[in-house]
Amino acid sequence: MSPDVIVIGAGAIGTSIAYQLAKAGATVMVFERGHVGDEATGASAGMIQINPDRSTPPPLSSLERESARLFPALATELLDRTGMDIGYRAAPLLHVALEEGEESRLRAHRAWQVDHGMTVAWLDGPAVLDLEPTLNPTIRAALYYPDDHQLLPLSFAQALTRAAVDLGAVLREGANIDRLLTDGDRVVGVAIGGDAVHAGEVVIANGAWASSWSEALHTPIPVRPVRGQMVALRTTGTGLRNVVSSADGYLLSKPDGSTYVGTTVEEAGYDSRPTASGIAGLLALVPRLVPRLADATFIDAWAGLRPGTSDGLPLLGRLPGWNGVTLAAGHFRDGILLAPITGELLADLLARRRPRLPLEAFDPGRFLVRAA
Q1: Of the residues 7, 44, 61, 230, which has the maximum number of CB atoms within 10 A of its CB?
Q2: Are 328 and 318 in contact (CB under 8 A)?
Q3: How far apart, in whole angstroms, are the C-alpha atoms of residue 165 and residue 38?
Q4: Tens digits of per-residue pLDDT, 54-68?
Q5: Quick check: bond before 134 cis, omega within 30?
């Protein structure tokens, strides 16, 4: 089979692209060196949150808002097509202040967000405890985001994959691509051992490993791994009603009764081990926010490698100097949130349709221009 498009990577981004392409009638083959959602997708908490601040580039805020808007219909669509529930449900966020300095920062943050159209309420300490009675009673105040959601990230990627496959896409798990096939300035396919698969287009969507193609393409793909560690706990009591976050991390309850505690942000290269110091820091946060969870049962700890870029923006678009290859990587902590819109925009690009949102800010060539 020579597909129209090869997608490298089967995380939330790659599977979303594959699904949208298959919906549009393209023949698609997805290559994943492990299993669907194995890497950053499966390691994530699955929160759908929009929380911009003064440092958030406006194009990224627009991308986040539009992608969040797509989730309700997409969750229903995937359920109808596959029978799989991706766990999309309301998960309001309480961002709490434990110290006076944090309270001042939250007031300023809220003022900026309200000026920029965000729905966010200010709650004093007693009002916070009314919403989440098990929180530390010393909490001074919180920002309340009623419109946030969460989902099950692995189920999300698996549902996208099943929907794409049902539409004719081919998934090859455990397929570690050895090299890209090129003809002059065009990428024409991939090779796995002696097996060559040709395609009209190749999409690089393998997250923190996207930079591994830099040498073959003689072009820098500046995506780096940023480790995020997480812990899962189980308690016999009722789970948290809201996602609870602070300056040091967050807690959220999942449908299976576990509570996730996250997350670190570490420059550790491709080391995806959970570490003693990382886990200790996360566990120290638990009694500070929710004292009763100090007695919770430790279930598991893990780490994922988020794909980061130097300016915090993903790489979406054609790789300069080449034909037949497109990048969709570098989403950092927004991979789940941005998956729906990334799938639609990349499908538009590959079909030579004008994307409904401007992509200039995400052009992979922006780093080459700066270097020149």
Answers
A1: 7
A2: no
A3: 18
A4: 999 999 999 999 999
A5: no
Q: Where are the domains of the chain?
A: 5-84+152-222+310-371, 90-149+225-308
**Rounded CA separation 256/239 (Å):** 10
Neighbours of 349 (CB within 10 A): 20
- pTM attached to this predicted model: 0.96
How many CB atoms sit inside 10 A of residue 369's CB? 9
Two structure tokens written together for 235: 């308690």
Backbone dihedral region of 132: left (phi > 0), alpha (psi from -120 to 50 degrees) or beta?
beta
Task: Spell out the CATH class of 90-149+225-308.
Answer: alpha beta
pLDDT tens per residue across span 71-90 = 999 999 999 999 999 999 99
For the domain 5-84+152-222+310-371, what is the CATH code? 3.50.50.60
Residue 116: closest CA among 70, 54, 60: 54
Unique residue bearing structure tokens 């393998």:
206
Measuring CA to CA, how many Å separate 225 from each of 268, 309, 331? 8, 9, 11
